[in-house]
Amino acid sequence: MGRRPRSSTSTACRRGWTVTATENNADVARTLDDDPWTYWSVPAKKRGAAVTLDLGATETVTGVFFHLGQRGADSFATLRIESSMEGTQWSLVKTADWGFPVGFESSGQVTTVTNNTQYVLFPPLSARLLRLTLVENSATYDWSIGELGVFGTGAPVAALRLPEFGDPASPAGTPVQPEAGTTVPTS
User: Fold this and answer.
1) Cα-atom radius of gyration of the chain, to the nearest Å?
2) Taking the model in full, what pTM does it have?
3) What phi and psi, each to the nearest 5 degrees, are found at residue 119?
4) 160 pLDDT exceeds 50?
5) 139: phi > 0 → left, psi -120 to 50 → alpha, else beta; which?
6) Contacts from 1-6 at CB under 8 Å and sequence distance 24+?
């Protein structure tokens, strides 16, 4: 049996996060286990089910990301996102509708999102807690989350990774020095 793909969300950047749910709370920790093939789920038409994510500290967030793993059809159709600093007063961030996941770039190129991911972006905000409430699920399927991520948190990540060489002692990007006594042509 082959290895299952791992989540693109690093466990290190989610250290200190906790998650609870109004339904199937015993399984909701699976949304943070770095394995999109384990999941939390609620039955179809279980409107009002909610997942609350505690980031452990106040963070600037700009969106949420769901990897649905093998349960790509178990998506939300409408999701309410709320934020809080302490868990007693909640502010509506966005009510998001997930329709046909297609986008049109300024060049005219049509792009699509894979069927096992969903994301919702919003203007930057400071929050410690995010509550994600199912308003409507997709068709007659359950609502499932394989991995849960948040945009805008954690340490900056390099946009471009330098290539790795076969020799681990050779750092990427270090110019090769000519051997002693060798001349190197110049242009």
Assistant:
1) 21
2) 0.70
3) -150, 155
4) no
5) left
6) 4/35, 4/36, 4/37, 5/36, 6/34, 6/35, 6/36
Query: What are the tokens at 158?
Result: 């390099």
Mean pLDDT of 155-160: 48
CB 156, CB 16: distance < 8 Å: no
Phi/psi of residue 12, nearest 5 degrees: -60, -40
CATH class of this structure's domain 16-151: mainly beta
Domain ranges for the chain, please list them. 16-151
- 29-42 mean pLDDT: 93
pLDDT digits (tens, 9 = 90+) for 82-104: 999 999 999 999 999 887 666 66
Q: Find the helix or strand (DSSP H, E) in which 19 lies.
A: strand 18-21
Q: How far is CA 42 from CA 39, 49, 60, 63, in A?
A: 10, 7, 29, 22
Per-residue pLDDT tens over the stretch 46-61:
889 999 999 999 999 9
